[in-house]
Design brief:
12 strands; single chain; 341 residues; 434 Repressor (Amino-terminal Domain); alpha/beta; 6-stranded parallel beta sheet
């Protein structure tokens, strides 16, 4: 295991300078501090410090996810994480990130500089710099709904495959044969998983896979207006959505097109955000227990810090039936789209 002296020898500088660089002293240059941090990470000093168990502090790095109030997806996840951390007397910092931050400083260097024992990453996409750097990190790290084949990195989430299957089975049992999927954004492991679950579930229940009834959007209501009319043109009697926010946009768009929910089209969301109970009609959805996700993420991170390599931890979803779904009232033949006539 590398020591401060080893780092000093490699860089040809004094041990005191290395110590200043590692501890954020203000009387060395930013360039020297970064050289010290990068060399420490390269030589393995990071793992020695990160795995200390006393007086731990960890961070939640968050990007592209809202989390500041209870109506937002990330809020309860962070609450669950903090609750578990408090019981273990572990300090938690929540740090919003962006591409600029990720390009300015490497993940391992940032963690070492700040003295964090581990991190929980929320909302990151596969192409983000920090995600790419996790292939080789030795920093204990937990990802939400992303997988990296590194023994120091774990994956926590809800079994989305099971969740989509619950939705499709419920709709099929209620006579729906033309079921659409408005999925999440591309280049996402969760999106790919849900697409696979959707197509395989249709096959499982003897329903045809129609590419015209599958679309990709973003996790905002506005994306619905680009897909709903196409789904209706191709006979959709039910729409499964990748989030409750998308589902809220789908209901609004169906109303604009003079389609009744659920009499004409059933709608199912995913997440069970508080908004689901306040929509008109109230939203049938797949519940993710987000507090439990946060608690599980801390539990996994603690094990990773202790040297126990955990690959995946998936929670079971639950189908919550409300008023946005009903038995299919239309014929199973091709349904002509008449809402815009």
């Amino acid at each position: 295991m590398a020591t401060i002296k080893d780092i000093a020898t490699k860089l040809g500088i004094a041990v005191s300078t290395v110590s200043k660089g590692l501890n954020g002293a203000s009387d060395i240059s930013e360039d020297m501090r970064q050289r010290v941090l990068d060399t420490a990470v390269e030589m393995g000093y990071a793992s020695k410090r990160i795995q200390k168990l006393g007086n731990r502090k960890v961070c939640i790095l968050i990007e592209n996810m809202e989390y500041e109030n209870i109506d937002q997806f990330g809020y309860e996840i962070i609450v669950g994480f903090k609750l578990s951390a408090a019981r273990r007397h572990c300090d938690v910092s929540v740090i919003p990130t962006n591409l600029n931050m990720q390009t300015q400083e490497k993940f391992d260097s940032f963690m070492l500089k700040c003295g964090y024992s581990g991190a929980f990453l929320l909302g990151f996409a596969l192409h983000d710099d920090y995600i790419k750097q996790l292939d080789k990190t030795t920093v204990p790290t937990v990802l939400l709904d992303n997988y990296i084949p590194n023994k120091h990195v774990g994956y926590v989430g809800t079994d989305g495959y099971n969740g989509i299957d619950l939705a499709v089975k419920y709709l099929a049992d209620n006579g729906h044969k033309n079921i659409a999927l408005l999925n999440g954004s591309k280049n996402s492991m969760v999106t790919d998983e849900r697409y696979l679950a959707f197509t395989q579930s249709l096959n499982r229940y003897s329903l045809k896979v129609n590419p015209d009834l599958i679309g990709n959007g973003y996790y905002v209501p506005e994306c619905a207006k680009y897909h709903v009319s196409t789904f209706l043109e191709h006979g959709a009697t039910a729409i499964v959505c990748a989030s409750d926010l998308i589902a809220s946009g789908v209901i609004a768009e169906l109303n604009r097109l003079n389609k009744r929910v659920p009499q004409d089209v059933s709608v199912i969301g995913f997440d069970d955000l508080p908004i689901a109970q306040h929509l008109t009609p109230t939203l049938t959805t797949i519940r993710q227990d987000r507090v439990a996700i946060g608690k599980s993420a801390f539990m996994m991170l603690e094990e990773l810090i202790s040297g126990v390599s955990i690959s995946k931890l998936l929670l079971k979803p639950e189908l919550i039936i409300r008023n946005s779904t009903d038995r299919c009232s239309q014929t199973n033949d091709f349904l002509a789209f008449d809402a815009l006539k």
